[in-house]
């Protein structure tokens, strides 16, 4: 049962005036596996089997007068087959195996846990999901199908699901409606890849129906109230909890550079500071961010619990500053500096200037540790091999440049922290690339294919 795409069969004369004068005849194959017929003129025809508008099979048949029969063997055409079992390896019946990207593709497993989705396209990439009530969904890795036989999927192993439910309310018991509640499961110390989320209903209630085994962290994301977080220990039975929100404190303020230079675009980030003996800080429910730019340097962060909050710029190139919430502040950041350095590139073997274009990678470091890398920039020396680098750098950051020219080894320039004095040029001698061609053969001179050669 379930849904699977109904393939179409088209037929058209293979050549000649008849092909030019007629559109392909088309028929949809029946869902009940009964035969379908087409009325065609005798002669050679090109037959094309289509599924979801993609070609599954193409071939030619010389049709004679009377009834011609074409039989498709699905085992020799692209499709998928597989099996769904529980954690004990027992087959699961009634599992829906579907393709989210193609909502026409879904089948149910039989009593033996097997499923078959025939007549798919070898030109598409498929991502199948196995779903059954009472079990957690399982998603397979995307697959490209074999063009001439069924592709066997890895066995879907479905884990029993449990229910985690609860209510979001204020301290006085008033329901908080429309609040985002997120959940993340941790099993064996490893957190799930991404949290799942939903919104509290008109009574403030929420319900996660398919949580896997393991500890569950629940937290709220409300824009105006102090969010709550709770950790539910691993349990098989249904768990229910209450998330209580409170009025929070905000930090409002402005930001500027200490030299009042142009601000540009910045992301301001705030995180409560844990206090001795206080409640632990859950980052995902407590951190807040605001965007500022040259058009407006005002920001508002929160809600936070009353107390100290560490505020910094999101690039993390500035040490955080601690302020009390609630308060109104001015955040002053050290100004960026413009670095400008000139280089002359020469061939180390000939001494001649390198004038061809190259590529540039910029490495940013703090205290010797690389914190950022950007590639894809062009280097275009002039006729004398001269090239100038210009960039705005955050305080405390040093820059290294890696320049690559075709037929040369990479050249690296480290420790760019200041602009060069006027007229100062750094000479960079670039070593030519030395190529080596290796041939592996037997004593008879016969080449050996697939041999691995290493240079030490």
SSE topology:
Elements: E1 2-3, E2 8-13, H1 17-21, E3 25-28, E4 43-51, E5 54-63, E6 79-86, E7 96-98, E8 106-108, E9 114-117, E10 125-126, E11 129-131, E12 138-139, E13 143-144, E14 150-152, E15 156-158, E16 162-170, E17 180-187, E18 190-191, E19 196-199, E20 205-211, E21 215-221, E22 225-226, E23 229-232, E24 239-247, E25 249-257, E26 266-272, H2 283-286, E27 288-292, E28 298-304, E29 307-313, E30 321-325, E31 327-333, E32 337-347, E33 358-366, E34 369-379, E35 386-393, E36 398-404, E37 411-416, E38 425-430
Parallel strand pairs: 6-14, 6-15, 16-24, 25-31, 32-38
Antiparallel strand pairs: 1-8, 2-3, 2-4, 4-5, 6-9, 7-8, 7-11, 10-13, 11-12, 16-20, 17-18, 17-19, 17-21, 21-23, 22-24, 25-28, 26-27, 26-29, 29-30, 32-35, 33-34, 33-36, 36-37
Task: Briefly summarize what is shown.
The chain is built from two helices and 38 strands. The chain has 456 residues and is mainly beta.
DSSP strand content: over 45%
| Large-scale geometry | flat
Category from helices, strands and their pairing: mainly beta
DSSP helical segment count: 2
The assembly state of the depicted protein chains is single chain
* Radius of gyration of CA atoms, rounded to a whole number: 33 Å
Q: Give the mean pLDDT.
A: 82
Distance between the termini: 60 Å
Query: Looking across the biggest beta sheet, what order are the strands in?
Result: 1-8-7-11-12
The total of beta strands comes to 38
Structure description:
It is built from two helices and 38 strands. The protein has helices at residues 17-21, 283-286, and strands spanning 2-3, 8-13, 25-28, 43-51, 54-63, 79-86, 96-98, 106-108, 114-117, 125-126, 129-131, 138-139, 143-144, 150-152, 156-158, 162-170, 180-187, 190-191, 196-199, 205-211, 215-221, 225-226, 229-232, 239-247, 249-257, 266-272, 288-292, 298-304, 307-313, 321-325, 327-333, 337-347, 358-366, 369-379, 386-393, 398-404, 411-416, 425-430. A hairpin with a 2-residue loop joins β33 (358-366) and β34 (369-379). The protein starts with a strand and ends in a 26-residue tail after the last strand.
